[in-house]
């Protein structure tokens, strides 16, 4: 709007007064004040405006106020006049001609028109004043709002800083615990290496010594045997020859004597006869012939004696030769003995050298462990320094934000002061106008009515209450905030800068905040007290309820965050052990198929995660002839009695959202057919895996399979699959990978693994790469006379053999421990220790592959084939949840048996003590009265009535605090 041009005679002189505006761009406002001629006004009670003319016509005073605002396209001209278009009766004009009268009337009509314009401009001015005050209030509220926002965001920044500091402290504690665990692992590894080296040295030296001793013994035995045989031969030969010679000589001598006697008799007789009767010559000749024969016989005997002497000499030579050979054998034995001693010396030297090498390797390992510890400590210190730098940067950023906020506050205060100055200027203008209007008129006009009233320096037009102008003047303008102003207000709000995260850190780790209790709930539980006037029993019950609430709250507050994505350096997943700290929950029972189970199980995911569960065992997902799922038919059809495939995916996704592993129950041993063969046998499979009889083992007596013989036991209720067939194994691998990648399962629970070789299980696990795998190798324990045998080594050996067949790629249910606990917890705790001082189940031989449990859908639930003693459930869980191995919690026990709080308490004890599947175990007592053991370095537990606590053990140093006390059932201590 431009300025009105009026004659100087009517307006008088104009003065220029600059002022500061409260507008957004701080542009100056130009104000023109007008010096006026005297005005005659009179206030009357009627509130009407009248103008009186004196003897001479006077031009009514006019006041022009011209203002210009550069931030708008309009200019405001305010024209204030105290005249009125109503005249008083008739006017007396003296000495004025008609032209002057016409000019005066014209000027009067112009003045009236200008008066109307002035009224209009006045209204606009009042509106502007009201708008200015509203804007001032709006600016003030904006400043206060920004201040509140800044304070709240500063408080949020402080809380975030405190949270970061707490997280850093927690990370420090976790790193320290990891360092302690690493140190323990290094010490255990060193001890194991030393033991292995000692065993290897003993085995090697014992084997070599035994071999050498056996060789020496064999040589000595062969030499002794040879010498004995030779001596026996010589002795027998010499004795026989001498005996024969002597006998023959005796016989010959006897014969010779007999002949000589007979010859002497004959000679005597002959001489007698010759003397008597001079015998005949024939008899003499016969005697001579007999003498000749006798001499010949004697010669023969002499020759035989010479032969025998020669034989004796030969035998003597052979005897000497045998003695020489015996001496040679003795020399060889001496040489062998020398060689044996040399070998012993060399073995000893080699053992010493090996021992030195082992010591050097151990020293190197210690140095490496020390260096790693130093590196970890250095890294931790660097991380602390980095965190301190980040905290300092955050503080610097907060300081800069505070400075920026203060600068913005100062700017807003300057704007506020400018607005106040502008408001003050408008108030001054209004007061000036009011003063102009309230000046006294001449004494002749004393009965005239005034037209304005004053209210605190502000001109209020007296109008009706329903007038729009009155509403504007009272309430101010109600205009929506422009977009540019909203953007400016948003830009002025202080913001805490986001934490800068390194790319590698962002890729390797992530945090998901848990749903912690609300502050109101925390406060109500913290302030909850016992009611007055209760009886003793109700008082105790109420106290227990309050303590349970407080413990649950403490556990929830302690677990502030859960790391849902672990870095490879922190966790190595192995299919046989998982992370090593798994706690498995069997998420179904034998009757779960009767309800929409996947939907119910998904709603329990958050509760299970808060309780400390890490993995959930799902029921068999495949379409099955039996509703429980253990008679599968079409493996790719996952619409089962437990729910649809969409519900299954949603349930697994919810488990993953709560950082839980989903273990699928897969049946690989058998499969139900879809069709009958021409001879009426059910051995034709349908669905995507359309197998025939060639996929069934040939020794299954019921289904006429044409495959190879089974590599395990026969399951007689359904066709047993021949896993030696290449196409069968390929189809099973593809199916497992489909369950893993498309459906979302993380691992497997393998049903009836006795039916096929563990080598096939190893192949399937290597192909599907599960995070955790458990095999069900169910076998009968040893009983004698209806009582459980103490020695169950054969039973656990069969389970260990199956785990060995899988190459350790799968764990197995520790059925041995379950069976032993049935009897041991009835005051036969001596069953819990074997002669080597270890647990008597698979846990004692291979704890990292032992999955301990008390009950499942087969043994308990509505089947009840082998239920665990119900009054010993808490003791059983106290045993498996505090010992190495991987414990399993049954659904019915957790949700239906009323021992959920007890199980949660035991899980918390296991978590606080850092117990994992490989934790070392030392058993102190195991007798009829009770069982005592230390697991790891920070947990000790007792079962039964024994009077024992850690302070009674000399070597259990440190401060032990009782964490759980269930009296004669069980007690648990944690080292502080």
TrEMBL record:
It comes from the Eukaryota. This is Uncharacterized protein LOC107760700 isoform X1.
């Amino acid at each position: 709007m431009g300025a009105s041009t009026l004659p100087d005679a009517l307006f008088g002189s104009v003065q220029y007064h600059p002022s500061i505006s409260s507008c957004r761009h701080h542009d100056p406002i130009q104000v023109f004040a007008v010096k006026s001629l005297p005005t005659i006004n009179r206030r009357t009670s009627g509130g009407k405006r009248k103008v009186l003319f004196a003897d001479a016509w006077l031009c009514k005073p006019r006041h022009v106020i011209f203002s210009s605002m550069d931030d708008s396209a309009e200019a405001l001209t305010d024209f204030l006049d105290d005249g009125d278009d109503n005249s008083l009766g008739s006017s007396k004009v003296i000495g004025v001609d008609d032209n002057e009268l016409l000019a005066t009337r014209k000027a009067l009509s112009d003045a009236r028109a200008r008066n109307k314009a002035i009224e209009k401009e006045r209204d606009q001015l009042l509106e502007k004043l009201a708008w200015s005050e509203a804007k001032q209030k709006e600016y003030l509220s904006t400043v206060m709002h920004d201040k509140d926002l800044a304070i709240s965001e500063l408080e949020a920044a402080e809380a975030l800083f405190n949270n970061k500091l707490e997280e850093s402290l927690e990370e420090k504690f976790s790193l320290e615990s990891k360092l302690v665990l690493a140190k323990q692992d290094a010490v255990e590894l060193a001890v194991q290496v030393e033991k292995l080296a000692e065993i290897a040295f003993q085995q090697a030296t014992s084997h070599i010594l035994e071999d050498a001793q056996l060789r020496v013994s064999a040589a000595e035995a062969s030499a002794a045997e040879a010498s004995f045989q030779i001596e026996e031969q010589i002795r027998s030969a010499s004795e026989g020859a001498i005996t024969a010679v002597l006998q023959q000589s005796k016989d010959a001598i006897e014969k010779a004597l007999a002949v000589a006697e007979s010859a002497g008799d004959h000679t005597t007789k002959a001489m007698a006869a010759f003397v008597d009767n001079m015998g005949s010559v024939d008899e003499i000749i016969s005697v001579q012939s007999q003498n000749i024969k006798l001499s010949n016989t004697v010669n023969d005997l002499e020759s035989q004696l010479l032969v025998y002497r020669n034989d004796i000499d030969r035998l003597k030579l052979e005897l000497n030769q045998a003695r020489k050979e015996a001496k040679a054998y003795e020399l060889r034995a001496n040489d062998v003995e020398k060689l044996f001693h040399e070998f012993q010396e060399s073995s000893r030297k080699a053992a010493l050298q090996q021992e030195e090498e082992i010591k050097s390797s151990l020293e190197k390992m210690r140095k490496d462990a020390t260096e790693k510890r130093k590196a970890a400590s250095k890294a931790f210190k660097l991380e602390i320094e980095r965190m301190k730098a980040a905290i300092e940067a955050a503080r610097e950023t907060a300081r800069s934000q505070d400075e920026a906020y203060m600068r913005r506050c100062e700017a807003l205060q300057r704007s506020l002061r400018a607005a106040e100055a502008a408001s003050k200027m408008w108030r001054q203008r209004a007061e000036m106008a009011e003063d102009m209007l309230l000046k006294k008129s001449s004494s002749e006009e004393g009965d005239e009515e005034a037209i304005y009233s004053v209210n605190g320096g502000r001109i209020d037009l007296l109008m009706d209450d329903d007038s729009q102008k009155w509403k504007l003047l009272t309430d101010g303008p109600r205009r929506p905030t422009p977009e540019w102003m909203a953007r400016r207000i948003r830009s002025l709000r202080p913001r805490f800068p986001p934490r800068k995260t390194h790319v590698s850190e962002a890729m390797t780790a992530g945090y998901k905040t848990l749903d912690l209790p609300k502050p109101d709930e925390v406060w109500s539980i913290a302030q909850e007290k016992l009611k007055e006037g209760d009886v003793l029993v109700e008082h105790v019950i109420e106290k227990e309820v309050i303590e349970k609430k407080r413990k649950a709250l403490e556990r929830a507050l302690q677990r502030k965050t859960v790391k849902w994505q672990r870095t490879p350096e922190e966790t190595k997943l192995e299919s046989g052990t998982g992370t090593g700290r798994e706690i498995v929950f069997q998420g179904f029972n034998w009757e779960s198929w009767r309800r929409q189970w996947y939907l119910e199980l998904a709603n329990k995911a958050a509760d299970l995660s808060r309780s400390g569960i890490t993995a959930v065992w799902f029921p068999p997902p495949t379409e099955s002839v039996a509703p429980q799922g253990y008679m599968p038919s079409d493996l790719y059809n996952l619409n089962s009695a437990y729910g649809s495939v969409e519900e299954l995916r949603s349930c697994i996704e919810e488990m993953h959202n709560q950082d839980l592993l989903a273990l699928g129950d897969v049946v690989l041993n058998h499969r139900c057919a879809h069709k009958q063969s021409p001879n009426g046998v059910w051995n034709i499979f349908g669905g995507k895996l359309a197998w025939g009889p060639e996929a069934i083992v040939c020794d299954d007596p019921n289904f006429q399979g044409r495959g190879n013989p089974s590599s395990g036991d026969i399951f007689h209720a359904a066709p047993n699959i021949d896993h030696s067939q290449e196409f069968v194994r390929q189809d099973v691998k593809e199916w497992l990978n489909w369950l893993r990648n498309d459906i979302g399962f993380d691992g497997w629970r393998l049903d009836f693994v006795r039916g096929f070789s563990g080598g096939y299980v190893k192949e399937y696990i290597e192909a599907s790469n599960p995070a955790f795998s458990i095999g069900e190798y169910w076998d009968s324990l040893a009983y004698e006379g209806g009582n459980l045998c103490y020695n169950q080594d054969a039973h656990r050996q069969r389970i260990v053999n199956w785990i060995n067949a899988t190459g350790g790629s799968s764990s197995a249910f520790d059925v041995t421990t379950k069976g032993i606990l049935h009897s041991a917890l009835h005051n036969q705790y001596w069953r819990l220790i074997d002669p080597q001082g270890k647990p008597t189940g698979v846990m004692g031989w291979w704890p990292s592959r032992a999955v301990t449990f008390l009950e499942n859908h087969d043994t308990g639930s509505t089947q009840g084939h082998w239920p665990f003693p119900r009054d010993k459930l808490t003791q059983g869980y106290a045993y498996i949840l505090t010992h190495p191995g991987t414990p399993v919690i049954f659904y019915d026990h957790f949700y239906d048996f009323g021992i959920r709080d007890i199980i949660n308490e035991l899980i918390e004890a296991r978590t606080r003590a850092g117990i994992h599947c490989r934790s070392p175990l030392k058993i102190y007592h195991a007798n009829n009265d009770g069982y005592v053991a230390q697991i790891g370095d920070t947990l000790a537990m007792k079962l039964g009535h024994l009077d024992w606590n850690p302070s009674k053990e000399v070597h259990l140093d440190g401060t032990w605090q009782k964490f759980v006390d269930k009296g004669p059932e069980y007690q648990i201590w944690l080292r502080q």
